[in-house]
Amino acid sequence: MKTERVEKVLEQMKALEIPQAIIADSAAIFYLTGKWIHPGERLVALYLNVSGNHKLFINELFPVTEDLGVEKVWYNDTQDPVAIMADYIEKNKTIAIDKNWPARFLLKLIDLGAGSKFVSAATLVDTVRMCKDEEEKEFMREASRLNDMAIERLAQLTNKGFTEKEMASKLAEIYQDLGAEGFSFDPIIAYGANAADPHHEPDDSKGKTGDSVILDIGCKKNSYCSDMTRTVFLGEPSENAREVYEIVREANMRAIAMIKPGVKFSEIDATARDYITSKGYGEYFTHRLGHSIGIEVHDLGDVSAVNNEPVKEGMIFSIEPGIYIAGKVGVRIEDLVLVTKDGCEVLNKVSKELKVIK
Fold first, then answer.
1. Radius of gyration, alpha carbons of the chain
2. What average pLDDT score do residues 163-168 get?
3. CA–CA distance from 169 to each of 133, 148, 182, 241, 334 (Å)?
4. Which sign does the torsion angle of CA 217, 292, 11, 103 carry?
5. What are phi and psi for residue 106, nearest 5 degrees?
6. Per the database record, which ranges form the Peptidase M24 domain (predicted)?
7. Half-sphere exposure of 225 toward its Cβ, with a 13 Å CA cutoff?
8. Strands (E), 125-275
9. Residue 178's closest CA among 141, 214, 220, 211?
10. Contact (Cβ atoms closer than 8 angstroms) between residue 154 and residue 188
């Protein structure tokens, strides 16, 4: 297992007075073991104990032959994995259950009396994952580097007559050519009026002269996610569209400029939101400013008005202000930032100057 990461989780468990825990989320298991296991309907779970008596419960269907640094407890489809697991759990102690564990497993474990008390550990591993170690930082830099190259190529295709769906297919080809591991999320490619829908799904629309085009894309590399948005224009934008673009760009840069350890997420959100509001477009900025990212494109934590937690060194999250005016124009500009000792590193290097594709 990833020893330092496991130790951080065990420290969290001790602080929360949790003696034992079941970790069943695939991303969390990957984070702690370095191995992806996608179990489908079958049970795969990592049992952690502050005493160090850890186990990985796994079906024989999954050929995990390498040494993961934890004892594997195997079962097959003719056996009851929950009953097997119950024999290893300390029944006179509290046990915490990680997020997303199916009720059919949890309820049976409760019926078997495996643990004196059951509590939620929904954010146990996710909280540790919020601050990236050096390996993770490098993986995130590389994923963003590939994403930078991809969006530069994609932007040049916006005036070639492709539909939004065709653009998404082109992006998949670009990622494959760059050596990425596919999408980190379904891309948002939106021409003209569609760009005013923040979560528009690509359809058969094509761009026309004067349209803004939102390109919100991300890939995976080394199992880590990238995410970035740039807005380009097909031909010269209207005066209003140009104004909207520059307001969003300034909001993005103002928020990034204030990021450092100790600043509250809500304060970062307010910096961008208050600026957009001061320019008369507050009602058109309809979502939070950003989200945490790592192994999953939406890790625990966000940049929003209700998150008063302080920023910590090693965190990575997006800054993505936007203005969306129905039927007219949509603009979003998004970067990923890595919090450093005294500020932040912007992982995306693609220019944010207004770009006209002719």
1. 23
2. 98
3. 34, 18, 11, 28, 22
4. negative
5. -60, -45
6. 138-341
7. 24
8. 188-191, 212-217, 220-221, 224-225, 228-234
9. 220
10. no
Straight-line distance from the first to the last Cα atom of the chain, in angstroms, rounded to the nearest whole number? 52
Query: Under CATH, what is the fold of the domain 3-129?
Result: Creatine Amidinohydrolase; Chain A, domain 1 (3.40.350)
Helices within 258-317 (DSSP H only): 265-278
Could you tell me the residue ranges of all domains in the chain? 3-129, 131-356
Report the chain's mean pLDDT, rounded to a whole number: 97
Find the farthest-apart pair of alpha carbons in the chain and give their distance in angstroms, rounded: 70
Q: Kindly list the distances between the CA atom of residue 96 and the CA atoms of 46, 216, 247, 290, in Å, as whole numbers in the listed order.
A: 12, 37, 46, 30
Q: Answer for the pair 295, 130: CB distance below 8 angstroms, yes or no.
A: no
For the segment 54-80, the average pLDDT, to the nearest whole number, is: 96
Tell me whether residue 222 is exposed, middle or buried, using C-beta atoms within 10 angstroms of its C-beta: 0 to 12, 13 to 18, 19 or more.
middle
Percentage of residues in the chain with pLDDT exceeding 90?
98
Would you say the CATH fold of 131-356 matches that of 3-129? no
The rounded distance, in Å, linking the Cα atoms of 32 and 1 is 6
Look-up of token digits 């909001």? 251
Class of domain 131-356: alpha beta
CA distance 350 to 249: 13
User: CA-CA distance, 2 to 295, in Å (whole number)?
Assistant: 15
| Contact in structure between 107 and 133 (CB atoms under 8 Å) | no
pTM reported for the whole predicted model: 0.96
Per-residue confidence (pLDDT) for residue 209, from 0 to 100: 94
Instruction: Write out pLDDT tens, residues 77-117.
Output: 999 999 999 999 999 999 999 988 999 999 999 999 999 99
Rounded to whole angstroms, the Cα distance separating 192 from 325 reads 11
Query: Tell me, what's the pLDDT at 132?
Result: 98
φ, ψ of residue 62 in degrees (nearest 5): -95, 115
Instruction: Give me 203's structure tokens.
Output: 């359809």
Residue pair 209/244 in contact by the 8 Å Cβ criterion: no
In the three-class reduction of DSSP (H, G, I as helix; E, B as strand; rest coil), residue 26 is classed as: helix
